[in-house]
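Researcher: Please translate sequence to C-alpha cells.
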Amino acid sequence: MRLDQFLSARTMYSRKKLRQLIGKGAVTVDGQTVTRADLSVHPEKNSVTLNGTAISGDRYLYVLLHKPKGYVTSLHEPGQKTVMDLIPLELCRKDLCPVGRLDKDSTGMLLLTDDGQLAHQIMAVRRHTAKFYRVTLARPWEDTYREQIAAGITLADGIRCQPAQAEKVPGTDRDALICLREGKYHQVRRMFAAMGNHVEDLERVAMGGLKLPADLPVGKCRTLCQKDVQKLVKEEIEFAELLQNCREVSS
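Model: Translation complete:
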C-alpha cells in the first residue's frame, strides 16, 4: 500500500498532514529517510518510523491500560479526563476505543482496540467474556452474599442479574472477588447495594484468561501480542487461582 495510506491507518494524522511530514523527511522506511508519500510499503516486511517512533505494521492494535481513578471510559466527555488522555500519542489510532466500561471511581484492567470484531466478541451477550473484580466493602462480608449472587441478584430498580460467582478474599474481612459474565451499568456496586452493603473500592483484576500484570503501574499501558489476545478471548482463569492470588497480594 502507499506509505501515506499505511501511516494514516495507524496514526491520528490526516493524509494531508502525513504528506507534509513525509516531504519534510520525518519518515524512514527500513532505516532510510523517504520523501515520497506514494512509496509502496509492505506492512509485514518493511520497518517504518515517524518522527523517530516505530509504527507497527499490524493491522489491529490492542492496548491494555491500568486505569486509575478519576478518568471516565469514553473517547470525549466535556469537562472530564478520559482514559484516552493516558494513551501515548504513538499508540493512538483513529479507531482506537475502549472495550466496555469502568466507571470513574473504578480502577484496573481496561482493553482498548481498533479491532471491532474482537470488541464485539468480548461484549456479545451470548459470549460475554468473564470479568473478575476485586472489591472492598464498607462493611464486613457476609456468607449470605455468596448464595444471593449465585442465585442472581435483583437490583433496586427490579432488573435481574445473571447468576455470578463471588467469595471473600481469605485473610480479609471486607475484600471480595466477584466474576461477572454480563455488563450492566455499575453492576457490581448495585449488586452489593441491593444486599445492604456499599462498595468502597473496585478494581478489575482479570478478563477471560488474562490477568492485570503486576508490573504494570497505575495509569500506564502496554500493547498486547496475539498470544495475550487469544488468552483474553479463548481462555478463562480459574476463580480459585485468582482468589489465591488476591490473598497473596493482601498478605
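Researcher: Any highlights?
Model: The chain has a mean pLDDT of 93.
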